Amino acid sequence: MTLAEYKLTDCADCPIRHRAVCARCESDELEALDAIKYYRSYEAGQAVIWSGDQMNFVGSVVSGIATLTQTMEDGRTQMVGLLLPSDFVGRPGRAGAAYNVVATTDVVMCCFRKKPFEDLLAKTPHIAHRLLEMTLDELDAAREWMLVLGRKTAREKIASLLSIIARRDASLSTDPSSGAVSFDLKLTREAMADYLGLTLETVSRQISALKKAGVISLEGKRHVTVPDMRRLIEEAGDDSDGGLVG
Amino acid sequence: MTLAEYKLTDCADCPIRHRAVCARCESDELEALDAIKYYRSYEAGQAVIWSGDQMNFVGSVVSGIATLTQTMEDGRTQMVGLLLPSDFVGRPGRAGAAYNVVATTDVVMCCFRKKPFEDLLAKTPHIAHRLLEMTLDELDAAREWMLVLGRKTAREKIASLLSIIARRDASLSTDPSSGAVSFDLKLTREAMADYLGLTLETVSRQISALKKAGVISLEGKRHVTVPDMRRLIEEAGDDSDGGLVG
DNA sequence: TTTCGGCTTTGACACAGATCAACCAGAGGC
DNA sequence: GCCTCTGGTTGATCTGTGTCAAAGCCGAAA
């Protein structure tokens, strides 16, 4: 892949993911990246990596959605991050994976063997810098989510999740006249529950409640339309614009 | 301050905080750090920075404890990080603070004006690398805390918090014969509640319950003794050793 | 077409933790 | 000595969410 192609794809499958950075990239750096790069696909439901396993690559999601979860021995699980296209996976400098990574839809990842990637990182400061930026973003997202988990009601939690997905989902469409936003919910009620620290029954009930209140409307079980985003954000109890997903 | 002094203090007040890194430091880098460094003290209860404010420095805690909190308009607050000595504060590359930082005890911080620090960061790759490491640690801690907030019971939450403090608190003392660990709790019940997503009454009740069960014992309200750490960890429902605080 | 299994909804009820309220203990200040 | 203030404990009650159970929906397989 050439420099031009990296630009073309807006670096969705480059671990540095950001056009501004790549514009600065030297082409020999890109060639170095190419040399250690490979693609992998995972089917919906398939595990990318288990917590504790040796993780010999890093990479980023090209398409599909994956989840980052932690589980207790008794089976209680908490999602700690949602990986959308262009999100980075892996921790340079760490031997093992800290979480389970599971594909919830079919997923394609762009991977780099870890050792060579780390070598590259040591040699090219602005890749390291970009990675720091991304990690800080994830940290912000994680901390925002701590507020959601610790202090919001079930209804606010649902509204928060829908806001975040609406904001990030690339496939969202906005009706220019009404301003209505709609998108496909690519998570099951159970996955939402795991993200929000709720049970799937409560998720279902609160979605029904938001529907009844006219904050959202549904076509089928998974296609959501938000007639007025401000209303949804208000339901989320949002102090701010919110962050992105981890 | 000289290289020797940085080593002497184990870099507690160096933003890079780790002896192994500093051993690699070139002395001119340290001089560059010295040139932009200054100290600041805060009294217990005083705010270091408010969310949204311009933040023109980064730094690390030398002594005392500070908290990172987020607040909703209606006053609900959630602590998103606990800053113990040697923890880093601030986000290179970001203009404003994302959280409130408040000193809970008297605090001394070692600060660096942000711009010069960022310049230094750009020039010295291994400082950047160390910062990435630290940010990844914080991310792990935040995600571990998401499991606590989302899925643990009040009792498990308290046990988790006590485990973490016992593990990290430098002033902890271990009785070599019995293996009992004891430490001073430097947070009010309310601060604990804000960290755990509970009310202060529930915190109080659960601490009493753990005391009655013999998992911990108290002298006064704040000095905690843990006769058997394994027991406490078991109460925390801990799948793993756990992380550190953010 | 029927059947099946995964996902979702809905209801009845239980319970952990919130809320409201009273009281207690220790540290200053006077 | 007493007063007051902050932080902590404990009790009674309420409620949001979990739990258990039943039934509905819909796409895929047979």
From TrEMBL, chains A, B:
InterPro entries recorded: cNMP-bd_dom, cNMP-bd_dom_sf, Env_Response_Regulators, HTH_CRP, RmlC-like_jellyroll, Tscrpt_reg_HTH_Crp-type_CS, WH-like_DNA-bd_sf, WH_DNA-bd_sf
Domain Cyclic nucleotide-binding stretches: 30-138
Keywords: DNA-binding, Transcription, Transcription regulation
CC per GO annotation: cytosol
Origin: domain of life: Bacteria
Gene3D superfamilies referenced in this protein's UniProt entry, alphabetically: Jelly Rolls, Winged helix-like DNA-binding domain superfamily/Winged helix DNA-binding domain
CDD domains according to UniProt: CAP_ED (cd00038), HTH_CRP (cd00092)
One of the record's GO molecular function terms: DNA-binding transcription factor activity
Pfam families, per the entry: cNMP_binding (PF00027), HTH_Crp_2 (PF13545)
HTH crp-type domain location: 152-230
PANTHER family attached to this UniProt entry: CRP FAMILY TRANSCRIPTIONAL REGULATORY PROTEIN (PTHR24567), FUMARATE AND NITRATE REDUCTION REGULATORY PROTEIN (PTHR24567:SF75)
Name of the protein: Crp/Fnr family transcriptional regulator
Organism encoding this protein: Tritonibacter scottomollicae
Taxon lineage: Bacteria, Pseudomonadati, Pseudomonadota, Alphaproteobacteria, Rhodobacterales
